[in-house]
Design a protein that fits this description.
The complex is a heterodimer. Chain A is α+β, with helices and mostly antiparallel strands. Chain A has helices spanning about 5-20, 35, 40-50, 55-75, 80-90, 95-110, 110-115; strands at about 115-125, 130-135, 145-150, 155-160, 160-170, 175-180, 180-190, 195-200, 210-215, 220-225, 225-230, 235-240, 245-250. In chain A, helix 1 (about 5-20) crosses helix 4 (about 55-75) and helix 5 runs antiparallel to helix 6 (about 95-110). Chain B has helices at about 1-20, 25-40, 45-50, 50-70, 85-105, 110-130, 140-160, 170-185, 215-235, 240-250, 255-260, 265-280, 285-300, 305, 315-320, 340-360. The chains are: A alpha+beta, B mainly alpha.
Chain lengths: ~260, ~350
């Protein structure tokens, strides 16, 4: 072929070889299928030309890239995690610059973000039972987190026999440790419609701990920078006015500094 | 003896076959070079600049293709509609392409995995959707199909060295992986809490972007920007408003008969329906989509006479009875022909071609 490819030839070549090669049966009778499936000899001529002509190669690459992107976009929809990330990024835009930067850095390591989260059920249905308020931390195989969590225990005496005592987990509260040290206390309070977090400052960190509370269904994520309680090394956060539902509470990893 | 004659014949056929397949060397060489330049150039940069290196890779691939094709000669189908030589050459090229992709994936090259995913993700997903037990069409089912498709490709990347091109195609290997995952799914206990924290973390190795389960800020922002651009282009250049509405609805469903079931609804209601389902499947929030769809929404209050230009005699005569009616009041069915599914396919195809032309011209 001693001439450049026409736009129609480029489009037909792409449709035949990259887009509709296995999907000609999807097209209607009105669509001219012969115009989509090119003859091998024609394809060969076009490709022989493409190997030697940079201008046409560039044009075909551009058209092909757009066509593939269009078709990919057409069949894809955001995953739950992508939607969640978008929510956080949008909420971060409203924050001050340093907080915005910390969140951007935090979100770049998604696995670490995921590993440092706690599921929050606030006055909602869980396992088919309604009005449940509880916090759940799930340790997976390759969890990168330094945190370990446990529930505080409440002790009861057996009715009629006070010598026998029972222990019950308080599931709307959770204690977080790094190594042996107790650092975090989180409480989900259904009556107050709030979440209360107390966090001890850590040696290697100068900045206030940052927390994200992301509603799984409706609503915007809450970004909270904790405040230090005067004359103590404890930071405190209270997130109020929460609707019943499922949330993800994310703790900023301490290796961000 | 008969078997000696048989073996002699087989040897002769083998020699003849090797001659025939050798004649296809220039064909395969051209096709592979074009494919490398168009889709795999990232991982062939050094070889593209050095002709000898590229030549070596291609010759090695072609030699292996000839051997593999002989061992899989039974899978070459007779195609009465097409020229037998054309079918043979396409079949040979598909083997050489499988081999090229396999070598790239096993060498941990990103472009190989991306191209493999591009070619096979839809057929694999369709296979999973067809064979997975569950309530089809629900958001949960669709997301399960998506997860299993991703996992199929992740496992392929992990176990690609177990695949032998002498035994079958890459696609059949992908399908066998998907089959295992579907069977696993039937024995897995039901998950009760949010799937978010229950992500399976089997693969600790590096994954390529196309099959990476982890989203990144740059990726979602890029996808959001692209979606905005696409919606703007479709609304602006996609054709008549009813065609645009149907195409946008097509994006949100796996089953196009869902759309034909809505044919009695007015265009105003179809617009609402499209917006609702699009919001669930979009990178944008509802308010952002409202803004993007505004030019389309404005057209709904116009009469057909105002929408269809006078030079489009065909559409005008087909819809003559309704020309003075406002579009929003008209039912979708008046725009369909005898077979609505054909209209949906046509509108999709035409819209894509129109938008592509406009985007590339600009």
């Amino acid at each position: 072929m001693n001439r450049h490819l026409t736009d129609d030839e480029i489009e037909q070549y792409i449709d035949s070889e990259y887009l509709f090669m296995k999907r000609t049966h999807e097209l209607s009778e009105k669509t001219d299928i012969t115009s989509l499936k090119m003859k091998t000899e024609v394809i060969l001529k076009i490709e022989e030309h493409l190997i030697n002509c940079d201008a046409c190669l560039e044009k075909v690459t551009k058209t092909l890239d757009f066509s593939i992107s269009f078709h990919q976009w057409f069949v894809e929809s955001p995953t739950g995690e992508q939607k969640l990330l978008l929510k956080v990024l949008k909420a971060a835009q409203k924050e001050e610059n340093d907080v915005k930067k910390r969140i951007m850095k935090w979100m770049k390591d998604w696995q670490s973000f995921r590993d440092n989260t706690i599921d929050v059920f606030l006055n909602t249905t869980y396992n088919g039972i309604s009005n449940i308020t509880k916090l759940i931390f799930k340790k997976t195989k390759d969890n990168k987190t330094k945190w370990s969590f446990n529930y505080p225990l409440e002790t009861f005496a057996m009715r009629g026999n006070p010598d026998i005592r029972f222990e019950k987990r308080i599931e709307n509260s959770i204690h977080g440790q790094i190594g042996e040290k107790d650092i975090l206390e989180i409480k989900a309070l259904s009556e107050e419609k709030s979440i209360k977090i107390n966090c001890k400052s850590q040696k290697n960190s100068n900045s206030s701990p940052l927390f994200l509370l992301i509603p799984l269904h409706k609503g915007e994520p809450v970004i909270r920078l904790s405040r230090k309680i005067k004359t103590s090394d404890v930071y405190e956060i209270t997130i109020e006015g929460l609707n019943p539902g499922k949330y993800i509470l994310a703790i900023e990893p301490d290796n961000q500094e | 003896m008969a078997y000696e004659e048989l073996l002699g014949n087989i040897k002769k056929i083998h020699i003849d076959y090797m001659k025939l397949s050798n004649q296809q060397t220039p064909f395969l060489s051209t096709r592979l070079r074009a494919r490398i330049k168009l889709r795999l150039n990232k991982d062939f940069k050094d070889k593209i600049s050095d002709k000898n290196k590229l030549e070596k890779v291609i010759q090695k691939n072609i030699t292996a293709t000839r051997m593999i094709s002989w061992s899989r000669i039974n899978s070459l189908m007779n195609d009465s509609e097409n020229d037998q030589m054309d079918t043979f050459r396409s079949w040979l090229f598909s083997i050489s392409l499988d081999l090229l992709l396999l070598n790239l994936v096993s060498g941990n090259k990103e472009s190989g995995m991306n191209e493999l995913f591009r070619i096979y993700n839809l057929p694999v997903k369709s296979y999973i959707a067809k064979n997975l037990y569950g309530k089809k069409g629900t958001e949960y089912f669709n997301s399960k199909c998506h997860d299993l498709t991703m996992e199929t490709f992740q496992r392929f990347q992990h176990y690609c060295n177990n695949f032998s091109p002498y035994k079958g195609t890459l696609f059949s290997y992908l399908i066998s992986i998907a089959d295992h995952l579907i069977k696993d799914e039937t024995t897995r206990p039901e998950t009760l809490v949010s799937d978010f924290n229950e992500h399976d973390e089997n693969d600790t190795g590096g994954v390529f972007w196309a099959i990476s389960p982890d989203p990144s800020p740059e990726e979602v922002q890029e996808k959001t920007t692209f979606e905005k651009f696409m919606i703007e282009q479709i609304v602006l250049e996609g054709g008549y408003p009813w065609q645009i509405l149907v195409v946008l609805l097509t994006k949100t469903t796996n089953d196009r008969t869902d759309i034909t079931r809505l044919e009695d609804l007015s265009i105003a209601k179809i617009f609402q329906e499209m917006k609702n389902s699009f919001t669930k499947n979009s990178f944008h929030e509802e308010e952002e989509l409202d803004k993007l769809f505004l030019p389309l929404e404005k057209q709904l209050s116009l009469t057909l006479k105002e929408i269809i230009p006078s030079k489009d005699h065909r559409s005008r005569s087909q819809l003559e009875r309704y020309l003075d009616e406002r579009l929003e009041r008209l039912p979708l069915k008046i725009f369909f022909g005898k077979v609505p599914l054909k209209n949906i396919r046509d509108w999709n195809h035409r819209l894509f071609k129109r938008v592509r032309k406009k985007v590339l011209e600009s």
